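Reminder to self: tokens first, then the designed residues, so the page reads top to bottom the way the pipeline ran.
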């Protein structure tokens, strides 16, 4: 190719705006942990080999008589380059432009917004959102990528070059060997990565478990036979073409538990998830029976930012007989355990299994049940453990994922009781979220027949809810629930360990034997005495309430709202409306406290209508809502104040 035409064949491209931004960040602030670039590039090489294995099932010709997949890391002190080569799937020219010039993943915006400027934590974030390749620019002033996609002609190779600023160049090249070479032209402050011992150390630290052999050239030197002429005598020395494998090169989960150290488990997890923090616990088992599989499941120490969104992905990678099949295999874990990360390797599923097939497979169902059981066992073990570290870990787990596993109450009936046992609550007598249902039961009063709980928008609102006044007066503990999911989830729970569970803000309170005969009599008398007031109130508040009645549950408040049995609470209605869902209109019951001066004042009042509406609106406010017509509420209050 002449100089001229070579130039014409070179195309300049600009990076997508986000990439340019990211590159700026990578080069300017992410240098506190520079060695991770090697982990990221080796992980990409390994992904490329996984892809070749997968595609090779249907395209055996992709192997091109070069079936032994490997990654090679070579160092060139003269050129100041470190090259990471793989004979994986490779990139077409278009793929190089698309995949190395843009960030397709929606998570990247997230990544950007999480960056704090604190270099250390930013470095920890790198890779989490698929920015791995660009980490090369932490140590390189220029990166050259040479690649050829499997199955293409040697002439259809591609070279991609960038200095890590605004743009990159792409040209067609000849490349005989399949796969990708990533050539990093090191910056002067990164020359330590030309030392073989240093590079080996980093590979052992981060990439030992990669199932692919990672090879480096042996330090054996010989005279350069190619160099002839002037240097023939005592000629130039070059390394022999002998390579040694420097990692263990077997998939970690295939090894025996007893041969795996804690550190290796942790390092594997970090590689798998790009999480910088160690996991809280893990379960590693080989299961034989109707279906044979290996599971290695981790409980992370932190929830991912999108855990409560629709984008949240299941964290299980599926392998079939060591061949990588797919990420986020959501059929292998129930939705309420979507935070679990790990690997399942099945011996029975077909290699060409699709997501649709997974949905119907009986093997998959068995694996999912097995995974669920193991995780619940693991959590149960942590919860019950006497070990301080385990207890600490259970607390961390619960703070991060407690509200996620509650979804299981509605999703997984067969494990409901086991999930209930894992739950921890604040109560009216203990602000800390540490009380289990079993603890509560053990503290129940003589004669108490139910586990009482209240749901509200916040723990504070729950704690100060008027509905709790009588319980407090009688010294009866009430469980406080304020997670968004609580009320929905508790709909599915009628009892725990044989004891009924009762929401005290729903229906009439039945304290059973805890209420003595005298109190019951007093209530009946009050109901009789207030009959005309109740009738007048029902009339005045016809459009707002379903019913008005006298109650003994209140001590300090004049009134409270109660949700009729079987209907949605005001909190749940608010939540559903916020989420844009249509909710059937339901009216609450207004319960009034016959001992309260304001209620007594109602009898024969000149301003009955104002007083009635104010009492009602205050009850709405007390449980975290807003009066339907705030302006009218203010007007009525003022009119009462002035009289
Ligand atoms: P991720 O690995 O999360 O997809 P990266 O930034 O690490 O993100 O890589 C971006 C993309 O570049 C990869 O998805 C892949 O398509 C391509 N790529 C990177 N390295 C290689 C390689 N060695 N062989 C083939 N494709 C690669
Ligand atoms: Mg990557």
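Designed residues (643 positions):
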């Amino acid at each position: 190719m002449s100089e001229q035409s070579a130039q014409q064949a070179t195309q300049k491209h600009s990076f997508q705006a986000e990439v340019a931004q990211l590159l700026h960040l990578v080069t300017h602030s992410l240098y506190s942990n520079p060695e991770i670039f090697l982990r990221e590039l080796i992980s990409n090489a390994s992904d490329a080999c996984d892809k070749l294995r997968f595609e090779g099932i249907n395209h055996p010709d992709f192997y091109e008589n070069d079936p032994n997949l490997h990654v090679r890391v070579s160092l060139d002190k003269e050129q100041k380059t470190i090259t990471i080569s793989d004979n994986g799937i490779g990139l077409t020219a278009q793929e190089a432009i698309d995949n190395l010039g843009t960030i397709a993943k929606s998570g990247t915006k997230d990544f950007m917004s999480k960056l704090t400027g604190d270099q250390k934590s930013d470095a920890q974030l790198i890779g989490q959102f698929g920015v791995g390749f660009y980490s090369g620019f932490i140590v390189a002033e220029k990166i050259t990528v040479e690649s050829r996609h499997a199955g293409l002609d040697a002439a259809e190779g591609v070279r991609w070059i960038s200095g890590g600023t605004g743009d990159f160049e792409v040209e067609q090249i000849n490349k005989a060997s399949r796969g990708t070479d990533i050539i990093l032209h090191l910056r002067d402050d990164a020359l330590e990565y030309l030392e073989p011992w240093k590079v080996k150390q980093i590979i052992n630290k981060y990439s030992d478990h990669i199932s692919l052999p990672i090879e480096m050239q042996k330090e054996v030197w010989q005279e350069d036979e190619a160099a002839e002429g002037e240097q023939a005598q005592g000629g130039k020395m070059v390394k022999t073409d002998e390579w040694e494998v420097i990692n263990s090169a077997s998939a970690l989960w295939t090894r025996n538990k007893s041969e795996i150290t804690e550190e290796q488990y942790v390092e594997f997890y970090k590689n798998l998830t790009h999480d910088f923090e160690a996991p809280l616990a893990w379960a590693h088992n080989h299961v034989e029976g109707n279906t044979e599989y290996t599971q290695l499941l981790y409980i992370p120490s932190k929830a991912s930012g999108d855990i409560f969104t629709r984008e949240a992905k299941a964290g299980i990678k599926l392998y079939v007989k060591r061949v990588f099949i797919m990420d986020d295999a959501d059929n292998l874990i129930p939705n309420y355990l979507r935070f679990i990360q790990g690997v399942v390797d099945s011996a029975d599923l077909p290699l060409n299994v699709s997501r649709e097939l997974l949905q119907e497979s009986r093997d998959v169902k068995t694996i999912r049940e097995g995974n669920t059981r193991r995780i619940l066992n693991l959590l149960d073990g942590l919860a019950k453990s006497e070990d301080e570290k385990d207890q600490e870990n259970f607390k961390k787990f619960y703070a991060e994922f407690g509200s996620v596993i509650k979804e299981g109450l509605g999703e997984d009936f067969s494990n409901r009781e086991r999930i209930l046992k894992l739950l921890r609550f604040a109560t009216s007598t203990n602000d800390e979220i540490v009380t289990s249902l079993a603890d509560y039961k053990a503290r129940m009063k003589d004669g108490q027949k139910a586990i009482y709980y209240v749901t509200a928008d916040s723990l504070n609102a729950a704690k100060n809810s008027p509905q709790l006044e009588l319980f407090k007066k009688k010294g009866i503990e009430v469980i406080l629930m304020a997670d968004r999911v609580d009320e929905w989830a508790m709909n599915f729970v009628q009892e725990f360990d044989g004891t009924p569970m009762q929401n005290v803000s729903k229906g009439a309170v039945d304290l059973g034997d805890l209420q003595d005969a005298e109190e019951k009599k007093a209530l009946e008398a009050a109901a009789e005495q207030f009959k005309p007031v109740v009738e007048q109130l029902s009339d005045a508040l016809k459009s707002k309430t379903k019913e008005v009645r006298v109650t003994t549950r209140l001590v300090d408040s004049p009134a409270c709202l109660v949700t009729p049995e079987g209907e949605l609470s005001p909190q749940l209605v608010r939540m559903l409306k916020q989420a844009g869902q249509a909710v059937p209109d339901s009216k609450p019951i207004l319960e009034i406290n016959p001992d309260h001066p304001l209620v007594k004042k109602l009898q024969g009042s000149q301003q009955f209508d104002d007083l009635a509406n104010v009492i009602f609106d205050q009850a709405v406010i007390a449980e975290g809502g807003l009066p339907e017509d705030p302006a009218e509420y203010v007007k009525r209050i003022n009119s009462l104040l002035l009289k």
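Residues 40, 43-44, 132 surround magnesium ion (ligand 2) (CB under 6 Å).
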